[in-house]
Design brief:
Elements (H helix, E strand, L loop, with lengths): L4 E6 L4 H7 L3 H8 L9 E12 L2 H4 L6 E11 L5 H26 L1
Antiparallel strand pairs: 1-2, 2-3
């Protein structure tokens, strides 16, 4: 009703995803695939965006200004110390936005 919209997702190995795999052998294979050597796999994550239109054009579904929030909840696996997991997640988020902006500029 207020014009905001949400998009989100969770990982293929998330317990939340298991019920959506159904009888798909390929999805089961992806869920059970071993971790890459030397890497830690997240046990579960939930992430997404909340977009809030800031002008009439955006509120009407057209091209306009929007405020965007990003959210991430991640549970690292592999016995990673909490401080290391939190530092890695925060740097991934802060590195994403400049890279996304650069890609957006390139696309224009």
């Amino acid at each position: 009703p207020d014009g905001r919209w949400l998009e989100g997702g969770f990982g293929i190995r998330s317990p939340r995803m298991a019920r959506f795999c159904g009888d798909s052998s390929r999805l089961r294979e992806l869920r059970e695939e071993p971790s890459t050597p030397g890497m830690v796999r997240a046990i579960d994550y939930l992430s997404g965006y909340i977009h809030e239109p800031m002008d009439e054009a955006a509120k009407a579904g057209g091209r306009g200004r929007c405020r965007c929030w990003y959210f991430l909840s991640s549970e690292a696996g592999g016995g990673v110390p909490r401080w290391a997991a939190e530092r890695g997640v925060s740097s991934a988020i802060s590195n994403f936005f400049p890279a996304a902006f650069k890609e957006l500029q390139r696309m224009r």
